[in-house]
Amino acid sequence: SYELTQPPSVSVSPGQTASITCSGDKLGDKYASWYQQKPGQSPVLVIHQDIKRPSGIPERFSGSNSGNTATLTISGTQAMDEADYYCQAWDSNTFWVFGGGTKLTVL
Amino acid sequence: EVQLVESGGGLVQPGGSLRLSCATSGFIFSSYAMSWVRQAPGKGLEWVSAISASGGSTYYADSVKGRFTISRDNSKNMLYLQMNSLRAEDTAAYYCAKEDRGENHFDYWGQGTLVTVSS
């Protein structure tokens, strides 16, 4: 079965750039999506098709995907960005797959 | 405005059954595939099941295959998940999620309904 691996936690200072990685076999050949989930809330799509931002998502959120790694980058991180982030891809055998999630701490 | 509202969660004994519902509005329901995604307490997201726009194709995670059945009623804009032979490890918040057409990601999520499997 296809698996996606994320670091459990990432820390960043306010105003700095946060990078969250997601690794999977030949992930660059698939589309990666990213979801933000704040405590007690439902997930929100922040990046899809590797690099696209849905309407309403701030420009400080960006994505990339190449080789075996997709990356979510948050530039000028704000306190409101503190949340859990999940990557997701689609595999023809496993179907919809999520990474284990990364807790972003802004301190 | 797209809205997804889940219901039907609750406390059930191991081996029991439960049927979840998701009422949708704000989009042409019959044009979009839908999924159920769950999240155990303090854990990550796990895709559970999906159904095509017409309902003619269904997909399941190995962890629920043979026990859960996804269905939809396009005339009522409703999505369902019939859960049988429930286990303690099925305890989770269950979200219904709308798939962005043909793009294999989820652009809208419901608020979730909690299923607790315990004696």
Could you describe the 3D structure shown?
- The complex is a heterodimer of chains A (107) and B (119).
- Chain A is built from no helices and nine strands.
- Chain A is mainly β.
- Chain A is globular, with a radius of gyration of 13 Å.
- Chain B has strands at residues 3-7, 10-12, 18-25, 34-39, 45-51, 58-60, 68-73, 78-83, 92-99, 106-109, 113-117.
- In chain B, the strands form two sheets. In chain B, strands 2, 4, 5, 6, 9, 10 and 11 form a seven-stranded mixed β-sheet that branches. A four-stranded antiparallel β-sheet of chain B has the order 1-3-8-7, with no helix packed on it.
- Chain B starts with a strand and ends with a strand.
- Chain B has no helices and eleven strands.
- Chain B has 119 residues and is an all-beta fold.
- Classes of the chains: A mainly beta (107), B mainly beta (119).
- Chain A binds chain B through residues 1, 31, 33, 35, 37, 42-45, 48-49, 54, 84, 86, 88-90, 95-101, and chain B through 35, 37, 44-47, 50, 59, 61-62, 95, 100, 103-107, 109-112.
Key phrases:
heterodimer, A: 107 residues, mainly beta, 6-stranded mixed β-sheet, 3-stranded antiparallel β-sheet, 46% strand, globular, B: 119 residues, 7-stranded mixed β-sheet, 4-stranded antiparallel β-sheet
If helices are DSSP runs of H or I spanning 4 or more residues, what is the number of helices of chain A? 0
How many helix segments of chain B?
Answer: 0
Structural class designation of chain A: mainly beta
Number-wise, the strands of chain A total 9
Radius of gyration of chain A: 13 Å
Determine the N-to-C terminus distance of chain B.
40 Å
What is the C-alpha radius of gyration of chain B, as a whole number of Å?
13 Å
Arithmetic mean pLDDT of chain A: 97
Overall shape of chain A: globular
Oligomeric status: heterodimer
Number of strands of chain B: 11
How do the SSEs of chain A run, as a string of H and E?
EEEEEEEEE
Query: What percentage of residues of chain A falls in helices of 4 or more residues?
Result: under 10%
Instruction: Provide the β-strand percentage band of chain A.
Output: over 45%
Largest sheet of chain B: 7 strands, mixed
Main beta sheet of chain A, described? 6 strands, mixed
> What is the 3D form of chain B?
globular
